[in-house]
Design a protein that fits this description.
Blueprint (H helix, E strand, L loop, with lengths): L1 H5 L3 H9 L7 H7 L4 E5 L2 E4 L4 E4 L2 H4 L8 H13 L12 H13 L6 E5 L2 H18 L7 E5 L8 H6 L16 E4 L4 H4 L6 H19 L4 E6 L15 H11 L3 E5 L13 H4 L6 E4 L11 E5 L1 H14 L12 H16 L2 H20 L5 E7 L2 E6 L15 H12 L1 E2 L1 E3 L4 E4 L7 H22 L1
Parallel strand pairs: 3-13, 5-6, 5-7, 7-8, 8-9
Antiparallel strand pairs: 1-2, 2-3, 4-10, 9-10, 11-12, 12-15, 14-15
Bound molecules: pyridoxal-5'-phosphate.
Length: 461
């Protein structure tokens, strides 16, 4: 039955009738229906009409080892027939999460102590906030609960993590953000720096903005700051040189924890195993998801420093047993998939490959777009990149948002056989392909993107 249905256009009808899509313009969807993907191999996807696409986004920045990796499928199968599930509450354990936690602590970019497993980046960031709150309750600092995130930061969509996400479109309609969240300036050179500003001056301004915010709120009320090493969905924004050193100095001054949201950057995307290493970030807590299993099954983790861990353990005498955890925390099948995925990344040298294919991608993006009159900035690091379009370069001027420039480019790219993404609140398209992308496929991806841009720009004149 399933096999029969897989390749029939009736899937579109059934989808429109029954499936409530995430992050979708629902009224448009009711009219136009879905794009149905049925197969994947390497960086290539195939839809139910047999059309093939380069997946320039690795799904949602996550299928890092590419599609169709038998080693992960075999590990999932083996775990499913051996022990599909048992929980980790009340000191119970299964084997694969123990081995995975050990591996992650060994790999961590700064000395770390424990890993708490969840299912998604969103729930992991929720857990991080609860850890910060528990930590400060245990220390007898019950006022120290505010969390500072950044404008344009993306941290997920649960009630807490959507509040951390600095995008108004994810708040309106949902009565968010929650009142304990504040936002500081994004390290977004194109719109936040003055023309010609040096990295040092921009870094100093950003650190000052954060310090001013902490002082205005009262340092005794601020528990933590959450930051992606390189901002992903908010625009692929790479901070200036020295940024995290300056930020860390501010946080140390006011006894504020740093959460590195490595949901995109963790496990190789920036060309180093962790983004914290690439960006000289010294976090107290690290969030991972996506690349931990290359999205073959859902899994996330909160990596916790000894300082936070020990305070939480010591706090139990006052606060009682740790009352937080999911049915699927430390899921053995997800951990088996993660172990197989990390083995591929290590055995195949995929972090170094992400760095070298990333360098090639940036070279090709520069060649294709640097001279373009409507390109405001080409950004990125490792195997993540973005091109931002502007109506005018000097002074940088945005397009009228109703023109939906990036959305139209993404549509035109699809017609060329390329999947890319329009990022919210800017005319930016992004690239984040699987690490297994070949040199030829990098060139093809960028040339298809350029054709798509030309199509849309031709419509404008
Ligand atoms: N944090 C970052 C940096 C992300 O990019 C994402 C998802 O894109 C999330 C958190 C949320 O992860 P999830 O969609 O698995 O809940």
């Amino acid at each position: 039955m399933h096999e029969l249905l897989r390749n029939t256009p009736d899937l579109e009808t059934l989808d429109k009738r029954y499936l409530f899509h995430p992050f979708t313009a629902l009224a448009d969807h009711e009219r136009n229906g879905p794009m149905v993907i049925v197969k994947g191999e390497g960086v290539w996807l195939e839809d139910n009409h047999g059309r093939r696409y380069i997946d320039g986004m690795a799904g949602l920045w996550c299928v890092n080892v590419g599609y169709g990796r038998r080693e992960i499928a075999d590990a999932i199968h083996h775990q499913a027939v051996t022990l599909p599930y048992f929980h980790a509450f009340s000191s119970w354990a299964t084997d694969t999460p123990i081995l995975l936690a050990e591996k992650i602590i060994e790999m961590a970019p700064v000395p770390m102590s424990k890993v708490f497993f969840g299912q998604s980046g969103s729930d992991a960031n929720d857990t991080q906030v609860k850890l910060v709150w528990y930590y400060n309750n245990a220390r007898g600092k019950p006022e120290k609960k505010k969390i500072i995130a950044r404008n344009r930061g993306y941290h997920g969509v649960t009630v807490v993590s959507a509040s951390l996400t600095g995008m108004p479109a994810l708040h309106s309609g949902f009565d968010l953000p929650l009142p304990f969240v504040r936002y500081t300036t994004a390290p977004y050179r194109l719109w936040e720096a003055t023309p010609g500003m040096s990295d040092a001056a921009f870094t100093a301004k950003l650190a000052r903005d954060l310090e001013d915010l902490i002082l205005a709120e009262g340092p005794e009320t601020v528990g933590a700051v959450i930051m992606e090493p390189v901002m992903g969905a908010g625009g692929v924004i790479v901070p200036p040189e020295g940024y995290y050193v300056a930020i860390r100095a501010v946080l140390d001054k006011y006894d504020v924890l740093l959460i590195a949201d490595e949901v995109i950057s963790g496990f190789g995307r920036l060309g180093t195993m962790f983004g914290s290493t690439a960006m000289a970030m010294q976090p107290d807590l690290i969030t991972v998801a996506k690349g931990i299993t290359s999205a073959y099954v859902p899994l996330s983790g909160c990596i916790v420093s000894e300082k936070v861990w020990r305070t939480i353990v010591d706090g139990q005498s006052k606060l009682g047993a740790f009352g937080h955890g999911y049915t699927y925390s430390a899921h053995p099948l997800a951990a088996a998939a993660a172990l197989a995925n990390l083995k591929i990344i290590e055995d195949d040298g995929l972090v170094a490959q992400a760095a070298s294919r990333g360098a090639l991608m940036h070279e090709k993006l520069q060649q294709a777009f640097a001279g373009h009159p409507l390109v405001g900035e080409i950004r990125g690091r490792g195997l993540v990149g973005a091109v931002e379009f502007v109506a005018k370069k000097e002074p940088a001027t945005r397009f009228d948002p109703t023109l939906k420039i990036a959305g139209r480019i993404v549509k035109a790219a699809l017609a060329e056989g390329l999947i890319t993404r329009a990022l919210p609140h800017a005319d930016t398209i992004s690239f984040s392909p699987p690490f297994v992308i070949s040199e030829e496929e990098v060139a093809l991806m960028v040339s298809r993107a350029r054709k798509a841009v030309d199509t849309v720009m031709d419509e404008l004149v």
